[in-house]
């Protein structure tokens, strides 16, 4: 094998290019680098006991790893920022940005989730710590408070009524 063949063969092992198209049903994508177009190939994703689903986007910059320089056996490696898809932050936070406007940010101060629509949680939720709600709340079912419920400064368990009269008369507002 001539030296020029070796360099060409090594260049065929790892290629820089972009995603041309995606087939969501088969979890494969077509890689393109110049005139070279691959057959549908898998992209690197978590696929063990913990699995994730984050399909690539057309035009996303990727690497193609080709065992033995065989493009048909290639695997697409994602995660390369480019001018078309720059890093979502320039600080030490960890962020996930979704195409629909979802942003999840993890910092040393906590987690912030910004969702363009509703957030639905199915299953029991346990929270240790204070909860603050800025907006209306709706409840289907029973609300149980172990100590007290206070509304506009009036205690549910310790409030008193003014104007209490015997019989069927109505009392005044709680105080």
Automatic annotation (TrEMBL):
Q: Which residues form the Gp5/Type VI secretion system Vgr protein OB-fold domain?
A: 45-81
Coiled-coil positions: none
Which top-rank group of organisms is this from? Bacteria
UniProt protein name? Phage baseplate assembly protein V
What organism is this sequence from?
A: Aurantiacibacter flavus
Lineage of the source organism? Bacteria, Pseudomonadati, Pseudomonadota, Alphaproteobacteria, Sphingomonadales
């Amino acid at each position: 094998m001539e030296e020029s063949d070796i360099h060409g063969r090594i260049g065929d092992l790892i290629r820089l290019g972009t995603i041309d198209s995606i087939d969501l049903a088969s979890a494969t994508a077509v890689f393109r680098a110049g005139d070279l177009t691959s057959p549908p190939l898998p992209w690197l994703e978590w696929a063990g006991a913990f699995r994730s689903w984050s399909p690539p986007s057309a035009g996303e910059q990727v690497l193609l790893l080709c065992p033995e320089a065989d493009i048909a056996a290639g695997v697409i490696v994602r995660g390369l920022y480019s001018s078309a898809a720059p890093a979502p932050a320039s600080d030490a936070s960890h962020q996930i940005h979704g195409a629909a406007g979802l942003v999840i940010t993890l910092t040393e101060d906590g987690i912030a989730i910004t969702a363009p629509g509703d957030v639905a949680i199915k299953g029991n939720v346990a929270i240790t710590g204070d909860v603050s709600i800025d907006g209306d709340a709706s409840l289907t079912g029973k609300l149980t408070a172990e100590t007290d419920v206070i509304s506009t400064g009036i205690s549910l368990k310790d409030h008193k009524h003014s104007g209490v009269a015997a019989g069927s008369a109505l009392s005044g507002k709680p105080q």
